[in-house]
Amino acid sequence: MSTLLPSRTQAASPAAFTDRHIGIGPDAQAHMLDVVGYDSVEALVETAVPASIHVQPRASSEIPVAATEAEALAELRELATANRSARPMIGLGYYDTLTPSVISRNVLENPSWYTAYTPYQPEISQGRLEALINFQTMVTDLTGLATANASMLDESTAVVEGMLVARRASKAKTDVFLVDVDALPQTKALLHHRAAAVGIRIVETAFEGELPEAFGAFVQYPGATGRIWDFSAVADAVHAHGGLVVAAADLLALTLLRSPGALGADVAVGTTQRFGVPLGFGGPHAGYMAVRAGLERQLPGRLVGVSQDAVGAPAYRLSLQTREQHIRREKATSNICTAQVLLAVMAAMYAVYHGPDGLRAIATRVAQKADALASALRSSELNLASDAFFDTVRVHVPGRAQDVVDRARDRGYQLLWVDDATVGVSVDETTTDADLLAVLEAFGLASEDLPAGEALRGIDDALHRDDEYLTHPVFHAHRSETAMMRYLKSLADRDYALDRGMIPLGSCTMKLNAATEMAAVSWPEFSRVHPFAPEADVRGYLEMIEQLERWLAEVTGYDAVSLQPNAGSQGELAGLLAIRGYHLANGDAERTVCLIPSSAHGTNAASAILAGMKVVVVACDEAGNVDLGDLRAKIAQHAAELSALMITYPSTHGVYEHDVLEITQAVHDAGGQVYVDGANLNALLGFARFGDLGGDVSHLNLHKTFAIPHGGGGPGVGPVAAKAHLAPFLPSHPFSQRAEHAGGVFDGGPVSAAPHGSAGILPISWAYVRMMGAEGLRQATAAAVLSANYIAARLREHYPVLYAGEGGLVAHECILDLRPLKEQTGVTVDDVAKRLIDYGFHAPTMSFPVAGTLMVEPTESEDLVELDRFVDAMIAIKHEALAVAAGEWPADDNPLVNAPHTAETVVVGEWEHPYSRETAVYPVRSLVRGKYWPPVRRIDQAYGDRNLVCSCPPPEAFA
Length: 959
What we know:
Enzyme class: oxidoreductase
Strand content: 5-15%
Family: Belongs to the GcvP family.
Subunit structure: The glycine cleavage system is composed of four proteins: P, T, L and H.
Catalytic activity: N(6)-[(R)-lipoyl]-L-lysyl-[glycine-cleavage complex H protein] + glycine + H(+) = N(6)-[(R)-S(8)-aminomethyldihydrolipoyl]-L-lysyl-[glycine-cleavage complex H protein] + CO2
Shape: globular
Protein name: Glycine dehydrogenase (decarboxylating)
CATH superfamily of the domain at 524-770: Type I PLP-dependent aspartate aminotransferase-like (Major domain)
């Protein structure tokens, strides 16, 4: 018997985390190996993984021996206490906030919300889709624009996306984009870095005098200095040249100020962080984007809309998906393939709970306290940068700035050092009068009382908001905690997440997100830390980040890792920008061609375009591997201009390519670099390393292989790992606390708003690696490969497994070909996916990477009972399809085409179908006591696109 997987014979060691994480024990393992036809797990994995890329377990490792859950939490506590507790008043788009406990407990800490997947199966995602409709409505109401998407990654990346929308939609014949000199500094740094790759010229301006012709202009409202001004005349001037105006706006300020739409903005972007989402040392937070009417189809990212189901009832779904990167590929204008759903839900529910009056009251208190502080400073003859502000004041203290900041820090406050003569102070909803008095002491002003503050005292009345917002009943109906708790519970009950059952999505790795891994995310020492806090205040965070970077470098075979990218798409882009920077530094500006296999993820091509590269597609052979002949021909054709090859390993088709070393060597011989997409690392970890395959750079998905939950479609973390020669081109950041990441060793320019991206969820992956240890990570891979091959073996006679490698084995996922079933029975892949809901399952990945197929990935976390339940459901569905083919049920009226079946379906009205109610909703008896009931019937996708509605429908629509 194999000893590779946990033996579970050590009854005296129940705290071994690996035993908790991996679902299959020794008895299950023996049974599965018998079905697959191997004597041991070692033999199975060594056959599946090409011998040429095997690595042996290291004699010594950077990764410590696996800790118990209690030990890992204790070590995290030590790291947390190394972060100095301080009140952040730095601002620059990041603010302390009060997360209502009902939201923290019932959303952030609730697996019904954080273990859900992207709502591509909308019938079982109605709860989070409604929450996202609330988010979109909140954003459109406050920005005064027509349509908002379901969230962005952060404010700065949203600004970049706004710039790209403007370029695409503008009629101006110029490559100039105007940028407000008062923009957030991290946003300006990101704009310069991203614009250079796509040939956009950034021109910073104070918007005074005559403006140059530009395809767009970006304004910050309020500005980084706190200044508030009427930019409507600038909008008119930009529009006169055919350009578009992008405004980054603070949503809390917009409860008191005129909306960007009212001032002429075409696009509004920003962050919803201060709506109850903790700071988390920079993330994750939900950015936002809203556009005026006519720009809906230019929106990047995901967009939730209202459609109807099979009986005409209103139902939510993702709208206009044909504009997304996974379909448009190299024609995409954005590579954003995710949202920050969990954080968007929190922000939306903050607005639902407080309502317009509550938000306005919070904003008024913030503005009053800022004015009280400003009045006290002015009374002491200190000059301010602006008299028109909402929450931020810049104070002139010639020659004393560092002293003021140091004095504040001694009192437990973090202020912004702007320059030797200027200090910035930002207040938020947590700020008290005692805080303001302590800040005044730091400026050398002793006082026992504050002046009475007046909200928006220095702002022209014409900029005061006078229109209504958040008028929909959802923002008025849940004021008590009882009502809010029940609303959140009702939404969660409409969804399917990992707390209900397996989500066997190929390419997505929906593994266990253990409670111990999640615990530290809510600790204030991690959650209430500003991303630009001084190094001395964040030593615990920096130590944790350094450890995680070292661990990831070791398991991938690379020399350097940056955790800054806050999504897989951003990690891809960072890696490709590093390759671009490397070629430019070597004087090879002509190297712009990126070779990408036809099977690749849609983000690959989109990321290459955004990195300034030209995509050339490489064919795949009948086995699903890269066609070596076509690859060599493309290399020869583009040898002088070859920049990179992007490949996924194991391949997107779910097999280990035996020729991978030959592939990477051919690219290197031609002077190119190799980008290995890390999406499928869960099939490799501990057995092979990207760096040893010939990879020069990779992104990793911590929300796949390293246990960060998907959160209903975000958050994610997409670190970029590289060999030493590319390390100088990895992401830097102007506010990085570490010199090597602030233009030192890493000098590639930022790809995210915060120096360390979504650092607030890094404790999850740190805890996962710490509790698994190097051997546990290897065991997880083995279990995932065994489980995938078990499913493939059991289903092969019912559904052809499309691709396989050595010995007929797959990697960690398998592709089931449903096209023969459709030809034989007329039953489609959609029918099977929707019927799986009736059996209590989330469907596997549909029609990717091959149309008419299902890609199944069980992960290592599922036990044999759940694996068999899925296999049995798929076999039963095959028999149902054959019954249709045999004429037992009509082709247009059977359990498959009518799936999924709601409770209403079987209890209301006469039953007129040729199959029984029991067949409809209880196809197996085990469902009788544990049935998941979908809230809607099958959704009409086309109707929602023809009748685009992307905000909350009126209550009578559900009557």
